[in-house]
Amino acid sequence: MLNEPSVIAINLHKNTVVAVGKAAKRMVGRTPPHIATIRPLKDGVIADLDAAERMLRLFIQKAHPSRFLAKPRIVVAVPSGTTSIEQRAVKEAAYEAGARRVHIIEEPMAAAIGAGLKVGEATGNMVVDIGGGTTEVAIVSMSGVVVAKSVRVGGDELDEAIVTHIKKEHALLLGERTAERLKIDLGMVRAAVPEADPVGRHRAGLTVPAQDGLLGPDGDEPAEPAPAPRGWNPFRSRPKPESPAPAAAPRSLDPKTSAPVRGRDLVSGLPKTATISAEQISEAIEDQVQAIIDAVQTTLDQCPAELAGDLLDNGIVLTGGGALLRGLPERMGEATGMPIRLVDKPLYSVALGAGRCVERFQAMRDVLLPDWSRR
Ligand SMILES: Nc1ncnc2c1ncn2[C@@H]1O[C@H](COP(=O)(O)OP(=O)(O)OP(=O)(O)O)[C@@H](O)[C@H]1O
Ligand SMILES: [Mg+2]
Fold this sequence. Notes:
Blueprint: E1 8-11, E2 16-20, H1 21-27, E3 35-38, H2 49-63, E4 73-78, H3 84-96, E5 101-106, H4 107-114, E6 125-130, E7 135-141, E8 144-151, H5 155-170, E9 172-173, H6 176-186, E10 200-203, E11 206-209, E12 258-265, E13 271-277, H7 278-301, H8 305-314, E14 316-319, H9 328-336, E15 340-342, H10 349-359, H11 361-364
Parallel strand pairs: 4-5, 6-14, 14-15
Antiparallel strand pairs: 1-2, 1-3, 6-7, 7-8, 9-12, 10-11, 12-13
Helix pairs in contact: 2-3, 4-10, 5-6, 5-7, 7-9
Bound molecules: adenosine-5'-triphosphate (ATP) and magnesium ion (MG).
The site of magnesium ion has 5 residues, from loops.
GO biological process, one term: cell morphogenesis
Subunit structure: Forms polymers.
Keywords: ATP-binding, Cell shape, Cytoplasm, Nucleotide-binding
């Protein structure tokens, strides 16, 4: 399997490709003016058709190194709610890049399949895929997406929020990649305790007790990082007596609480190092995290009654790289009163799901979007 970031670096003088994927991503923010790093699939839709074609062509060659001329069947995952015109553009790019047949699947459906959910059954499952550009929230049942919401808040926006915050607090300008590193190394989602009701709250028909000791009464200093158990995380107000409590295995044994970063001092204009704390990162990303939680709650509100019961049993499945943010599964469980499951390899769910559709094409046809524009 090929898993590469959708970035291409192009030399504008010679109109040649300098790098694609991981190599191109490393160049972001480091190029001279004549080399452009382009994300042709910004926010999941095609922003630059020519660059998208060239990137796909190189990815196809990478995936089929021995069969250079092979014309593969391609399944492309797009955000739910992508218009038919946008879908057409995606298909055109993939055909131009050398595909024999192109099929489209909605990202949350691909994520659900990649997470191993039985999407064909008449039971509701909720998937929240927190990617770089978008967060996709969807309820799937019987091979289809029943309710979906796609918001343009994802990991990239968290990075931007970190840049903005550090600029304000430290007069220090960070690069995009540096902000992403900070997010991954220090990022930590706060356990929210509403100020008006510090003892508990009522959401989704369940009373949710506040997590003691996570936040001070003023909601500023976190005393201890929340333990981050993996796998099913039965919410504390709905214990499952038959299953043993998950061992409190923190995702990272020794989460860093601060880290030095380098950027450009906005006052002197010179390179400068500053120490950034985990708490600063939590503060920086809070609004975006809340926007993700809000999208989940809005979707839950739109859930048909019959499926709501299924969701309580099946819980919410978290996929996408953003799901790896420490404390996010716990926060979502707290906010929704639902059991949350973080999948094993969240960065791969969509690719795994789309891959399954290629491998088992006939069996999986139902989950693909109908093809109105046969070539
Ligand atoms: N350990 C981590 N903690 C927090 N965020 C992470 C971690 N690892 C990766 N990410 C973030 O996950 C995002 C990438 O996730 P993913 O690969 O699922 O997105 P994508 O599929 O490329 O984007 P989209 O679905 O929006 O098209 C990036 O923003 C990255 O910074
Ligand atoms: Mg994705």
